[in-house]
Amino acid sequence: MTSRALFHPDFQPLPYWWEAWRPEPGQVEDLPRRTRVAIIGAGYAGLSAALELARTGIETVVLEAGLPGGGASTRNGGAVSGGVNVGKSFTGGRSRASGERRAALLGGAAEAFGLVETLIGREAIACCWEKRGRFVGAFTPAHYRDLEVRLASLNADAAADARMLPRSRQREEIASDYYYGGMVIARAGKLHPALYFKGLLDACRRHGVPIVAEAAVRRIRHQPVMPADRAWQLGTVRGTIEAAEVVVATNGYTGDITPKLKARLVPIASHIIATEELPDDLARSLIPNGRTISDTPRVLTYYRMSPDARRVIFGGRARFTAVDAMVSAPILHRFMTDRFPELRDARVTHAWTGNVAFTFDALPHMGQEEGLHYCLGCNGSGIAMMSYLGWQTARKIAGAANCPSAFEQDELPGFPVYRGDPWFLPALGGWFRFRDALDRRRAQAEGGKA
Q1: What distances in angstroms separate CA 326 from CA 1, 344, 393, 399, one per listed residue?
Q2: CB count, 10 Å around CB of 99?
Q3: What is the CATH number of the domain that holds 275?
Q4: What is the pTM of this model?
Q5: Does the residue 441 lie in any domain?
Q6: Is position 82 within any domain?
Q7: How far is CA 359 from CA 371, 413, 442, in A?
Q8: 267 phi and psi angles, rounded to 5 deg
Q9: Which residues contact 113 (CB under 8 A, 6 or more apart)?
Q10: pLDDT for 162-212, tens place per residue?
């Protein structure tokens, strides 16, 4: 298919999810002069924290630089897991975490999955929630063995209800021979990310939380000589607000206003396409059990059927930085047809991107930096982990947490020469693509037996 023929006549360089709900100014909120808690960032973490604080009777204001939902919260793939991504940092000797800490982290990730279910049910959020599970495809036989190593821990500590599936049975889960078997995880789900966000936003507004849009914070100043309820002063483009406590929930869009936090996060662009509606028999055959699919190469992909099961939503690291949809869409389409050759003629109707925040230890984090609370670093598990970290931060502020979260540490880890400018990402992406190609060729040369 030529590049021109790849795009549907109705193509839009916008998220497919925005067909159902699109970020908009909505009710114009005035900026209050004072609040108990000021939250910077109206994404999943910020809204989850605000909702929990409001439910405990704590006055809260959310400040958003743009439109609520304009960032990654309405731009992701909609997959919800309970620990499979967190567990990645514990393989191959890359983690120094003790067995007890590993268990606590995976237990927290499992709790995050449960929290999403709780929020959806309690707030009556209509977001196409389905607990259909996930299939993690092994890119090489060695990756299959790595997944086997992780299996016991995921089941014991994250209640994942996972099992291995050899390549000989792979078509039970996916109409493709691309992978070398993989892992089936029953405790995983998917939803419509924009509608989930809308549900959180509506819930916050029902509880009286002001969501102040287009109020970028330009200055944060600690006021030690002021009363405790005015300890912080935040200067925004819409005026100044004072607060007793501040929560930074900006994740992949963390900027210069919090330079120490910015220097501990690597924003990586994740790109997604949506296909046109497919013939019914073809659409039904691709992922017969309706699971979300992810895989194990360094340049990963993730994909699923749309909520109406008529389109493929296909995402991945087409590039590690933001690029035009005319660049990313052909790359993702090639990745898709590598896995599903029968989709070679499927045209693209939507293509978009959003920032994911990675940390240097590949774990999500919450804590305090110079008195500022933060919940950052989803590492690709934004729906569950950012909802959870926001909720946990709110419970900490409210004094409702019985013990510290497993994701709370004294300091968000950094790297000595990094200051928040990921200039190295294009080179890193090239190196990862080279290593993936090398691993794949080696697997094929060895006969590819898992």
Answers
A1: 14, 17, 39, 49
A2: 10
A3: 3.50.50.60
A4: 0.95
A5: no
A6: yes
A7: 20, 7, 30
A8: -80, 125
A9: 80, 81, 82, 83, 187, 188, 189, 384
A10: 999 999 999 999 999 999 999 999 999 999 999 999 999 999 999 999 999
Name the one residue in this structure whose structure tokens are 């006021």. 223
> How many residues appear in the chain?
450
Question: And the tokens for 15?
Answer: 């998220």
Which tokens hold the place of 203? Answer: 């819930």
Query: Range of 88's domain?
Result: 3-425
Measure the CA–CA gap between 208 and 51, rounded to whole angstroms: 9
Q: How many domains does the chain have?
A: 1
Residue 51 resides in a domain = yes
- The pLDDT tens digits for 364-421 are 999 999 999 999 998 988 899 999 999 999 999 999 887 888 899 878 899 999 999 9
313 by Cβ neighbours in 10 Å (0-12 / 13-18 / 19+) ranks as buried
Q: Say if 356 falls within a structural domain.
A: yes
Distance CA 64, CA 284 (A): 40
